[in-house]
């Protein structure tokens, strides 16, 4: 592989948040994120259903899942790495779970909250929830069932999946505070 090809293959993923492609955007600031997570957490507590474990859908769900865990006092956390978006507005045909896989040995009979930042197409959340609710988890050849619910900050009207808990609905492109700045690369460090 040539140096040019090696550099091209390591081009950082850009979700479009820093481009000017869609000027009409939903702006989630850090302060508003704090409010959103408290209100979303209050929805969960008010429902009377409390999770034993929170699973973040990586990457977008990692920060919201951690914030919800702190807000509702749940320390047991896990994550699933799911690839769907491959570029700005470009997706795989269907989402794919990537390694490393989460250790599910402690999940049988547990209440599991799956957290993501947004249900955009809804395909990622739908796939994960169907896996947990209907197929259960494969624990070395044995499938176990879990009581799973989902939470997102945002839901798009076109989403094929309706999360159990949602802070706000929007059809705009969302600028999240953790992904609005350009990716840091060795080239960007040289001024």
TrEMBL record:
Keywords: Glycosyltransferase, Transferase. The keyword Transferase applies. One of its GO terms (molecular function) is glycosyltransferase activity. InterPro entries: PRTase-like, PRTase_dom. This is Phosphoribosyl transferase domain protein. It comes from the Bacteria. The keyword Coiled coil does not apply. Residues 1-24 are annotated as: Disordered. Pfam families: Pribosyltran. Transmembrane segments: none annotated. The lineage of its organism: Bacteria, Bacillati, Actinomycetota, Actinomycetes, Actinomycetales. Residues 1-10 have a biased composition (Polar residues). Residues 30-180 form the Phosphoribosyltransferase domain.
């Amino acid at each position: 592989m040539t140096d040019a090809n090696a550099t091209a293959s390591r081009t950082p993923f850009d979700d479009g948040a820093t481009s000017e492609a869609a000027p009409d955007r939903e702006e989630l600031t850090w302060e508003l994120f704090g409010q959103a997570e408290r209100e979303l957490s209050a929805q969960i507590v008010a429902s009377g259903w409390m999770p034993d474990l929170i699973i973040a859908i990586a990457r977008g769900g990692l920060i919201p899942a951690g914030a919800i865990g702190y807000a509702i006092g749940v320390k047991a956390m896990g994550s699933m790495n799911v690839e769907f978006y491959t570029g700005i507005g470009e997706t795989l045909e269907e989402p794919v779970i990537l390694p490393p896989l989460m250790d599910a040995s402690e999940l049988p009979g547990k209440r599991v909250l799956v957290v993501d930042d947004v249900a955009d197409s809804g395909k990622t959340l739908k796939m994960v929830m169907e896996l947990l609710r209907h197929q259960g988890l494969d624990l070395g050849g044995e499938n176990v069932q879990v009581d799973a619910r989902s939470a997102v900050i945002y839901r798009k009207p076109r989403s094929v999946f309706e999360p159990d808990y949602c802070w706000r609905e929007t059809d705009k492109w969302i600028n999240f505070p953790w992904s609005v700045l350009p990716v840091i690369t060795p080239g960007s460090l040289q001024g």
